[in-house]
Amino acid sequence: MGYSEKTDQIVFKYYYEGLPEDEKTSIRDGFLSASGIAYTSFYYKLRKGKFSLLEQNKLEELCNQKFSWQ
Fold this sequence. Notes:
This protein is an all-alpha fold. It has one domain (3-63). It contains 5 helices and no strands. The longest helix has 15 residues, at 21-35. The protein is globular. The model has no long low-confidence stretch (mean pLDDT 91).
């Protein structure tokens, strides 16, 4: 993957933080329902950037967008 390809994708945390509250809630609740993790675990993973590969795929599916996960 070239340098220009990496810069085309936003980090999920920044994408999420830029959303209106109702969209944040919708994505968070959809993710919690699909993954079965706790509310607090979602915010821990968001803060630390520690989503598993399956969780990353689910978030990309919910947001209909590819993210940079590095």
